[in-house]
Structures are given as structure tokens and as C-alpha cells.
Amino acid sequence: SLSDSPVTLKILQNWVPRVSHYFDKEHYTYVGHQIVIQESIEHFGAVVWPGALALSQYLESNQEQFNLKDKKVLEIGAGTGLVSIVACILGAYVTATDLPEVLENLSYNISRNTQNMNMHKPEVRKLVWGEGLTEDFPVSTYHYDFILATDVVYHHAALDPLLATMAYFCKPGTILLWANKFRFSTDYEFLEKLCNIFNTTILAEFPESNVKLLKATVREN
């Protein structure tokens, strides 16, 4: 199914350059809303990576194909929260998750950008890939329509737990949307493993940024 021709796109310059006293704030515009993201130089997860821009842009442009209104959305490795904020603006019930050390900045960005809007209040929760899933997110209670992940695959040791986490949350009917910058052989190895478990399609490619956006669904026997 990877042979379907993906659409070729360019990441648009959706951020608004401005004179700011803060070197650590980025301003973006998605779905008619200005979003201000505070980045943190201490953590990988606290910088806006190109996959997040690609997925935010794609969700904004493909609302008919992927209608998030009143859907339950889980973002894993939410980082700065940009994608979760965009999903929230699009009307989803969002749960944004990441490692404990990233949560403070993530919570700050999400509350700051969604507090005065008439939308479902997003939730921020700790999620360490592959750990405590059945305790923290029991299947009987938690079912998600969409799993969102951006730039979660890079040089790190947690790729197998990441895959296990995706497999845990992807139930029949769930759509996983994963955008990633592909630069290392490990990225392609992860893609191969993903294709072995899920029905996988490349929805879009952003060649200038080396980003691919993939859709995966669980194989129903």
C-alpha cells in the first residue's frame, strides 16, 4: 500500500516573524488562530520540529478527510504541544502526552493557546513509551479515534517501546497519523517495522524538509 502515490507538499512559512523580547517564542498561524509556542532549549521535546509543522498544516488543509470535530485524539511525544493545539482548534477532545520533564512547558503552551476558546479542554498527561500503559490507559476506558505522532523517531533507544505504544493504542477504527523527518537508517527500519504491523500509506511527502506523513491502521483479521 506504500506504492499509492503520496501528495508532494511544501511546509509553508506559517509562522509570523515578529520583533520579540523573547528569543524562545515562535508565532504560528493555523486554522485562523495565532499560536504562540514557547520552546525550551533544555529538552529535545521542547522544540518545534518539521514533522509537527507538516502534520499541523496537513490537518488544517484536509479537514474533510480527517474530521477531528468531537473525536478523541491522543498525541504521543507532544513536545511543545503545537499539533495538540491545532487538533484542539479543529474541535477534538485532545490528550497530549510526553515525558515528565517536558510536561511543564507542554502544559504552559496548551493552556495559554486554548484557554479563551470555545472548545473541548485538552488534557496533558505523562506517558513514557511502553511503560504503565495498561495501568494508566486501560483499554476498557480509553479508546482513541486518532493517534498523532511527529518526529518521534530519531537516534534514541526507545524505538521498540514506541512501536509497542503505537500498537497498544491503535485499535480497530483508530487512525495513526505519523509525520517524521527521515534522515537515518533507523528511521527507515522503524518504518519497515510499522509496515509489518499496520496497514500503512504515505499520505504526503515534504521533500525540502525530508518529511514523510504516514497513515496507519490496525490489520483486522
TrEMBL record:
One of its GO terms (biological process) is methylation. GO terms for molecular function: methyltransferase activity. Coiled coil: none annotated. The keyword Cytoplasm does not apply. Keywords: Methyltransferase, S-adenosyl-L-methionine, Transferase. Gene3D superfamilies: Vaccinia Virus protein VP39. Pfam families: Methyltransf_16. PANTHER family: HEPATOCELLULAR CARCINOMA-ASSOCIATED ANTIGEN, PROTEIN-LYSINE METHYLTRANSFERASE METTL21C. This is MT21C methyltransferase. It comes from Himantopus himantopus.
